[in-house]
């Protein structure tokens, strides 16, 4: 069936694809990945498939190895012998960290342009500027192009960091507690802004993997939740979230939401 533009705008198409993700192509796969820092084992035989078009959250006890898992996916770390990390061919990957890590002496747009003009996949200055302007529009900060980080709120700075990652047109976005440093109000606002960006036909983004400490955030945002065990971490459970595909404010009232939150709480107690 042909997808209409309005369906896409409503975010239905991407989300529906996610709900049948088991039939979709794999975006990132980890097979039998163990990893140690010196003689400290951090990951223990982690196998995980992340599908195109899905939103996956990673939960687990502090220090269990969630960031390490993202760094494996990003190819910044290699697993021990016998482990394998594969990114589907031609898929580009972006990363957003807990803190926005902006250069204080550069304006909002200069912070986004800079990484586009260095490294392997380099754009011309004009292309980089156009992409950065587009990304600022996506996150609603087009009127703050020439502001410096100290002139922006914490939430706005994190939006710049998201825009910086999106400007490079990633298909897969890895996020390490992206909203952990924000107040509850800003955090909830950005949760839904991120979902709308993920659904939007104006971005190349199809897959998000997000580390979070918040059970509630993971349930409201994800299609599946990966619960990690304590270090050396393995996959304790993978929990599908039975909420309607298009997430909206107020779904926290639904029984499916409470059921999933309670199930995760019980699991956390037994870890
Ligand atoms: N570069 C490194 N060298 C040595 N040890 C490291 C390094 N990076 C992480 N570790 C250790 O690996 C373990 C897992 O760290 P990681 O940051 O992946 O955990 P996490 O689950 O993301 O933690 P948190 O939830 O607290 O952010 C920790 O014990 C940490 O001290």
TrEMBL record:
<dbReference type="InterPro" id="IPR027417">
    <property type="entry name" value="P-loop_NTPase"/>
</dbReference>
<dbReference type="InterPro" id="IPR017871">
    <property type="entry name" value="ABC_transporter-like_CS"/>
</dbReference>
<dbReference type="InterPro" id="IPR003439">
    <property type="entry name" value="ABC_transporter-like_ATP-bd"/>
</dbReference>
<dbReference type="GO" id="GO:0005524">
    <property type="term" value="F:ATP binding"/>
</dbReference>
<feature type="domain" description="ABC transporter">
    <location>
        <begin position="28"/>
        <end position="255"/>
    </location>
</feature>
<dbReference type="Pfam" id="PF00005">
    <property type="entry name" value="ABC_tran"/>
</dbReference>
<dbReference type="InterPro" id="IPR050166">
    <property type="entry name" value="ABC_transporter_ATP-bind"/>
</dbReference>
<protein>
    <submittedName>
        <fullName>Nitrate/sulfonate/bicarbonate ABC transporter ATP-binding protein</fullName>
    </submittedName>
</protein>
<keyword id="KW-0067">ATP-binding</keyword>
<dbReference type="InterPro" id="IPR003593">
    <property type="entry name" value="AAA+_ATPase"/>
</dbReference>
<keyword id="KW-0547">Nucleotide-binding</keyword>
<keyword id="KW-0813">Transport</keyword>
